[in-house]
Amino acid sequence: MVHRSRFVAVLCCLQVVLLLSCSKNNEVQEEETSSATALNPILRTYDPVMLASPYGPRLLGGSYDFHSGVDMAHPTGTPVHAILDGKVVRAETAQPGSTLERYGQFVVISHDPFDEVELHQTVYLHLSETLVKVGDEIKQGDVIGKVGNTGVNINTEHLHFEYHIGENSGAIRRSNARHPLRILPYQSKSAVVDISKTNNELTITVVQVKSSMDLVSITISPMGHESKRIDFETLEGINKENVDVVPYQGIDIIPSPFNSVSSQMVLTFKVEGVWTDLEGVAVKLVNAKGKAQEFIHKFQ
Ligand SMILES: [Zn+2]
């Protein structure tokens, strides 16, 4: 059990390192490393989580899918720990045919206000076993259940984890889902961006290393044209009718295949338009820690 005193000690030891550098695309980078205050739900330590599937755009069974959480692949029976102190607000088995049928056995924990977030909850899906009940007061690090593959059409053993803000009653709404790397421990690293064009397609390729798949939003500003912004958290710029269908506002998103042994995640954004005379483009990325990376690319 990890007590509040340790929690505070970690906060006091927070180390922030900012690095500024320039690359060939006139990129200004900000890089931050910091100690985490929430636990890795599998390791029960502050070590970075190892993801088997990213938040936001991904491939699921070869098709485009917009993922509202992250996956951690571990064998059935692996203990799952609460990442912070809290109270169990849901612990149940979703019934086949219900809207949550893919959840299987799941737990939702509400947490005290933290880091200027008033209402927030963490969500743990596909459990093989649930070891808590509604109303239980939970300490950070307590075992709440075990990894499994419960839920309709869930074929692989993994923990699906979500982080919701603006809610702590256990209600599940996609609009509350935020990037889980806002809260889970990881080390932030800059993305690498490549920009190219043809006469009718502007292509931005974003490469993130596996340990830092933290992209939250992208703003694409072709010179002399309207900017377009896609935000995976607020769903700005995304097809809200069906988030699992691209293109979004003329931007096709092509995720690379990714699984537990992949070393990096590649997202390709293809913007439709007439780009024959385009002189340049600015691209801004914002990550789960709120840090921005900006790139300015001039075409010859
Ligand atoms: Zn998942």
Q: How would you describe this structure in keywords?
A:
300 residues, mainly beta, Immunoglobulin-like, Glucose Permease (Domain IIA), 2 domains, 4-stranded antiparallel sheet, elongated, disordered N terminus, binds zinc ion
The CATH topology annotation of the largest domain reads as Immunoglobulin-like
Q: Give the domain tally.
A: 2
Give the N-to-C terminal Cα separation.
59 Å
Strand content: 35-45%
Question: How many E-type strands?
Answer: 20
List all distinct small molecules, including ions and cofactors, that are bound in this structure: zinc ion
Any overview of this molecule?
With 300 residues, this protein is an all-beta fold. The protein has two domains: 12-33 and 186-298, Immunoglobulin-like (Sandwich); 49-182, Glucose Permease (Domain IIA), CATH 2.70.70.10. The chain has one helix and 20 strands. It has one helix at residues 4-12, and strands at residues 56-60, 63-67, 70-73, 79-81, 86-93, 105-111, 120-127, 129-130, 137-138, 143-146, 158-165, 177-178, 192-198, 201-209, 215-222, 228-231, 251-255, 264-272, 280-287, 292-298. Strands 3, 5, 6, 7, 9, 11 and 12 form a seven-stranded antiparallel β-sheet that branches. Strand 6 (105-111) and strand 7 (120-127) form a beta hairpin. The longest helix has 9 residues, at 4-12. The chain is elongated. Residues 1-36 have low confidence and may be disordered. It binds zinc ion. Zinc ion binds at residues 53, 67, 69, 71, 160.
